[in-house]
Every structure is written in C-alpha cells, then in structure tokens.
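Box 4.2: Ligand-aware structure prediction
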Amino acid sequence: MRNSSETHARHWLNPVWRDYWELGKPRVVLVMLVCVLVGMALAVPGLPPLDKVLAGLVGIGLASMGAAAFNHLLDRRLDRLMLRTASRPVAEGRLGSLQAGLYASLLSVAGITLLWWEVNPLTAWLTLASLLGYALVYTAFLKRVTPQNITIGGLAGAAPPLLGWVAVTGQIHPDALLLVLIIFAWTPPHFWALAIYKQDEYARAGVPMLPVTHGETFARLQVWLYSWLTVAATLLPFATGMSGWLYLVGVVALNLRFLQWNWRVWRGSDRQVPLAAFWFSIRYILLLFLLLLADHYVRLVF
Ligand code: HEM
Ligand SMILES: CC(C)=CCC/C(C)=C/CC/C(C)=C/COP(=O)(O)OP(=O)(O)O
C-alpha cells in the first residue's frame, strides 16, 4: 500500500483532470478536428459560417472524445495486458468504470445534442454513427474477432471531413466522400505499421491484429500495397478538379516520402522502421489536409 506522502506526490504530479483529459485521446482528436475543419472550408467557396464552424468543431470534438473514453472503458482489461496501454487511467484503476462510463456518456450526449440543435440533424446522425462505429462496432466487436478490424472500423475514423462538410452544407457531397476515402485508405498503413512494431504485445494480449494472424511479412506487404491505394486516392481531388496545382505538387512530394517509408517497411528488416513509418503517417495525413486547405484558399484568391 502507498504511504500518504507518495499518494500526495502522485496526485500533485498527476491530477485527476489529466486522467479525464487522457480518456479523450486528445492528440488523435486534434488531428481529426483539423480534418473536420478542412471539410468545412472546402464545402463552400468563401469562408464557412463561423457559428456552424464553432458549434461543429465543439460538438464533433466532444463526441469523438466521448467515443475515445468508451474505448478506454471497454478495453480496460485488454489495455492492462499491453505495455503501451497498461498505465492508462481506467486500465490502471486510477479512474473507476462508473466514472469513465458517466464521463464518456456525458461527452457523447453533450456533443450530439449540440450538433442537433446548433448545427443540423444530419451532422448529429452521422457523428452518432461514427461514435457507435468506433466505440461499439470496432472496440467491442471487430477488434477482438478479425484482423480486418481496422479496415472496417476505419470508416468511423475516416468520417471527420464528411462531418465537417455536412455541418456547413447540410448535405452529403461526392467531394466530401473523396476526403473520407483518403483517410479510409490511409488507416491500414497508419495502424499496421504500429501493429508490426507492437506485434508481440498484441499476440500476448490475444488481439487478432494482422501481423499476429497472418505473419509479419504479409502485414509488411499489406502496408506497402495500401500505401499505393492511399496514393491513388490522394490524386483524386486533383483529377476531379476539386483541388489545383498547389495541392498536386505538394501531395506528390508527400507521397514520395510516404512510399519511401512504406517501401522500407516492406523490404527492410530494421525493427525500428515500422515505428518511424507510423509516426510519419501522422505527419503525412496532417500535412495533406493542410495542403488541401491552402490550395482551396490560394485558388479563391488567385
Ligand atoms: C480505426 C482507425 C485507426 C486506428 C486503429 C488507429 C490506431 C492508432 C493507434 C493504436 C495509435 C497509438 C495510440 C497511442 O499509443 O496512444 C494511434 C495514434 C495516433 N493516431 Fe491513429 N488510428 C486510427 C485512425 C486515426 C485517424 C482517422 C487519425 C486522424 C485523422 C489518427 C491520428 C492519430 C494520431 C495523431 C496519433 C498519435 C497520438 C499520440 O501522439 O499519442 N488515427 N492511432
Ligand atoms: C465521432 C468520431 C469521429 C469518432 C471517432 C473517434 C476516435 C477517437 C477514433 C480514434 C481512432 C483510434 C485512435 C483507434 C485506435 O483504437 P485502438 O483501441 O485500436 O487503439 P489503442 O490500443 O491505442 O486504444
């Protein structure tokens, strides 16, 4: 048992708000909100209406953090079995299941309600579908039963640009679906690179991730193949006229780096390469969406 001074030191260093904040996976949600914002910006020729932008970002942000908190709750036993996740707040018992469940419900209900009243019902429905897709379909079911968990579950994570687009226009447009396709195709190279690096932990925890069920070589090949699918998807905004030359030049440069990293994942044997490719995938998707944004406004001005 901890003595009181240790307990005090721990609370001082790790206050409870920080645990609640961590439940929402804030860094992942931040990148998702950038994708939401880009969806909003590309949906209209000028600036999107500020009230929809603010209510949309807050509502989708709350719902996404709620979904992430449900993931922490439902995965608490699994998380305990892996080094990367063992010290998470619910897994380690710093927050109880009831607390986490109430917090996740509160964020989710607040987010969806805000979207319903201040944005539009379609955005609320689509966000609810993404929330349930990640928290229930992916976390509680797919993750535990099939190595295709993230290809199917990735649809929920890919939704943000569509949510942003619909928040501003109230309608689903094919261009928004192109943006969803980019994230959807990018998710397997993003995640399987990490899964290759962490395959021993997933195997020990009994999670059927691709490198565990089909072997490391097959997973490395899939990362390489899906990175080509991602490259193809990223060229569609230019091919359809949605984005211009600035986007094309930038995305070709990004894609060359992306392919280089994923080629090294496929051909290399260095154990650190998949981890580096995973971190590059995050910079890649962030820069790609910022590029779409820059291209959109440059084309408006010139
Ligand atoms: C089902 C789809 C996805 C899966 C399975 C997945 C999986 C993961 C995993 C396991 C991590 C490591 C988390 C950690 O160590 O705490 C991670 C990190 C990350 N993911 Fe994904 N991801 C998905 C979709 C996305 C999407 C759609 C985005 C953004 C658009 C995203 C952005 C990030 C970011 C920014 C990080 C780094 C977080 C940090 O700094 O700790 N991911 N992802
Ligand atoms: C409303 C909406 C857009 C919802 C999407 C919410 C959301 C935060 C998705 C995140 C995707 C992600 C990090 C998956 C990893 O889960 P994991 O359980 O495989 O990874 P872990 O082991 O790190 O928990």
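In the box above, the bound molecule is protoporphyrin IX containing FE. The two ends are 67 Å apart (CA to CA).
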